[in-house]
Design goal:
With 191 residues, this protein is mainly α. The chain has six helices and no strands. Helix 5 runs antiparallel to helix 6. 7% of the residues are buried.
């Protein structure tokens, strides 16, 4: 036998013997200690991952059910509103404004219902949406009333934007505190 074949056989034997030592938890000669520590950390994390996922599922709150639970009323309102809105948008009739505005109103009611329910129960925050909607209603009402009496000016819109901003900031702060309070109470009730 030649010298190169003998040396390759001895290397294979050394690999097998160090592989056995490594499988038993011992470090092979020349291995870095950091790599073994990293491996142990990854194994530990992999073992804890299912426990963490299960605990996260247990701690996650359930979506609040409406009083009319089996009937998906909010979803039905949104679908009917979308149909009415699209009909008013592309309809070929001369009075297309009515289904358009009815569709927008019905969509807003459906969206407001589930957003308010989720927000007040602490399930999910809808602070911006809930603070913005009253601003839109007040601004639109004032401009429509002013334009019915006289012509609405740009000055009125600029003044109303300032009122909208102040009202939005106040409502945002109140709704955010209300959500955080409800979320804390729900978390305490689960634990």
């Amino acid at each position: 036998m030649t010298q190169s074949k003998r040396s390759s056989r001895s290397r294979k034997r050394q690999r097998r013997s160090t592989g056995g030592a490594h499988a038993q938890g011992q470090r092979p000669a020349g291995a870095k200690s950091g790599s073994a520590d990293e491996f142990q950390t990854k194994v530990k994390q992999a073992r804890e991952a299912p426990r963490r996922a299960r605990r996260a599922r247990e701690l996650k709150p359930e979506r609040p059910q409406p009083p009319w639970h089996p009937l998906p009323l909010a979803e039905l309102l949104i679908i009917v509103g979308m149909i009415s809105f699209i009909y008013g948008l592309v309809g070929s009739h001369h009075r297309h404004e009515v289904p358009l505005f009815v569709g927008m109103l019905v969509i807003a009611i459906g969206t407001l219902e589930f957003s308010l329910r989720e927000h007040l129960s602490g399930y999910r925050s809808h602070t911006i949406l809930l603070a913005f909607l009253p601003c839109v209603v007040v601004h639109s009402s004032v401009v429509l009333i002013a334009s019915a009496v006289a012509t609405a000016t740009h000055t009125l819109n600029i003044i109303m934007l300032g009122v909208d901003l102040v009202m939005f900031l106040i409502l945002f702060r109140i709704l955010r505190l209300r959500f955080l309070d409800a979320a804390n109470r729900a978390r305490l009730a689960r634990s």
